[in-house]
């Protein structure tokens, strides 16, 4: 017997409690539902975008318990009790008001770091996560010193920091090609941007 749309059958349903952008949410989900589909279709959080649905574009990125996470690649039931921050809740999570913008969001606006805007929610969530990783000294594939527990934003020179940002943001694709301005925006949000100079060339930024 088929299950009507919008409900779950007795053997596949699961009660899930989440905190989404500071608000407690509870929902019954099919155990086969991804976190992305649960956020969008069951909780109405459409800021989280569905792009490739294969973890290769980054449009679905949120902060999950403080770390950036691709919601299309995990089942919702894996994250019962999790704290989820979407682009809608970045400012509030950083101590701002409901009508405020997070520093990364403001930098994206100031630098015109978007065109169609579809990838932007995932881009800004990932950028916030990236800056947090750098401040905590988490190494990446291009980090020279894998054991130094230092603030990489202040420890690296300009070129090395750009390499880190490109590497860490490489999972967030922009089909419009706004990479130069995205990089500049993240540098601004990190407090190391040059307001009068372009970040780099288009070819370099899209490596």
TrEMBL record:
InterPro entries: 2Fe-2S-bd (IPR002888), 2Fe-2S-bd_dom_sf (IPR036884), 2Fe-2S_ferredoxin-like_sf (IPR036010), 2Fe-2S_ferredoxin-type (IPR001041), 2Fe2S_fd_BS (IPR006058), Aldehyde_Oxdr_Iron-Sulfur (IPR052914), Beta-grasp_dom_sf (IPR012675)
Keywords: 2Fe-2S, Iron, Iron-sulfur, Metal-binding, Oxidoreductase
Keyword Oxidoreductase: yes
Molecular-function GO term, any one: 2 iron, 2 sulfur cluster binding
Pfam families per the UniProt record, alphabetical: Fer2 (PF00111), Fer2_2 (PF01799)
Domain annotation 2Fe-2S ferredoxin-type: ranges: 14-90
Pathway: Alkaloid degradation; nicotine degradation
Keyword Transmembrane helix: no
Name used for this protein in its record: Xanthine dehydrogenase YagT iron-sulfur-binding subunit
Taxonomic source organism: Nocardioides scoriae
């Amino acid at each position: 017997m088929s299950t009507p749309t919008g409900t779950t059958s007795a053997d596949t349903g699961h009660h899930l409690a989440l905190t989404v952008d500071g608000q407690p949410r509870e929902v019954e989900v099919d155990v086969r539902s991804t976190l992305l589909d649960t956020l969008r279709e069951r909780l109405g959080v459409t800021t989280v975008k569905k792009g490739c649905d294969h973890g290769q574009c980054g449009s679905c990125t949120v902060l999950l318990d403080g770390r950036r996470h691709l919601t299309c690649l995990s089942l919702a039931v894996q994250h019962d009790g999790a704290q989820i921050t979407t682009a809608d809740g970045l400012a509030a999570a950083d101590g701002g008001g409901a009508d405020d913008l997070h520093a990364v969001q403001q930098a994206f606006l100031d630098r015109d770091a978007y065109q169609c805007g579809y990838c932007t929610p995932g881009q800004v969530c990932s950028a916030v996560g990236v800056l947090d990783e750098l401040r905590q000294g988490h190494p990446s594939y291009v980090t020279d010193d894998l054991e130094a527990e230092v603030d990489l934003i202040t420890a690296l020179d300009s070129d090395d920091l750009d390499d880190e940002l490109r590497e860490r943001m490489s999972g967030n694709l922009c089909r419009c090609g706004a990479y130069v301005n995205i990089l500049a925006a993240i540098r601004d949000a990190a407090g190391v941007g040059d307001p009068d100079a372009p970040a780099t060339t288009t070819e370099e930024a899209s490596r």
